[in-house]
Hints:
The structure is a single chain. Strands 6-9-12-15-18-21-23-24 form an 8-stranded mixed sheet, with helices on one face. It is globular, with a radius of gyration of 17 Å. By secondary structure, it is of the alpha/beta class. The longest helix is centred in the N-terminal third of the chain and has 12 residues, at 14-25. The chain has helices at 14-25, 51-57, 77-87; strands at residues 7-10, 30-35, 42-43, 46-50, 64-67, 95-96, 101-102, 107-108, 113-114, 119-120, 125-126, 131-132, 137-138, 143-144, 149-150, 155-156, 161-162, 167-168, 173-174, 179-180, 185-186, 191-192, 201-203, 208-209. 14% of the residues lie in helices and 28% in strands. The chain has 2 domains: 7-93, Rossmann fold (3-Layer(aba) Sandwich), CATH 3.40.50.20; 94-202, 3 Solenoid (UDP N-Acetylglucosamine Acyltransferase, domain 1), CATH 2.160.10.10.
Amino acid sequence: MSVQKPIALIGAGGHAGVLLDILLQQNFTCVAVVDKTPNETLWNGFPLISERDFLSRFSPNDVDLVLGLGSLPNNHSRKSLYAFFKKSGFNFKTLIHPFSSVSPSASLGEGTQVMAGAIVQANVVCADNVIINTRASVDHDVHVSAHSHIAPSATLCGQVKVGEHVYVGASSTLIQGVSIGHDSVIAAGAVVVNDIQPFSCVKGCPAKPDE
């Protein structure tokens, strides 16, 4: 029987606070919160240390990581941090909020985070470092590629394909079977009825390029 490692939380902002709640609800032990240049010694009652101090004090054998940096449109910071710590040998914990619903047939990659009220249906595949945020709905046979963010209350209908590092905005809707190219942004409230090319930014109903 494997022993559950303690957790180091990377980041000390709003998204990290939500993840800390999940960790505490599921009785994980958080040994440190890591920030690039911390101005305090404690964050929400937990030791706050710099990345440099963390790497000097902890090894991949000591802890698993939870990436507490959120994901904004056209921002690669979360993806870069994930790659940096993976290259350093660390593993990321996949987190599922106890008040979400994830099908037993769904597959969630390393470091993927499913927030409160989210629904992940049958045969969904989420790659590594994906965020399925609060009340998002991901229907059957959807594929979400690495480093993508499905924002709060977004709806992905069945068989949608989402490329790598895509931001699907809050309360947007992706109609059944559409494909979203990598590094694209779907604006909040958009309704996507056709395939979207890589590096696109679309908004409106139906969604069209933002010019």
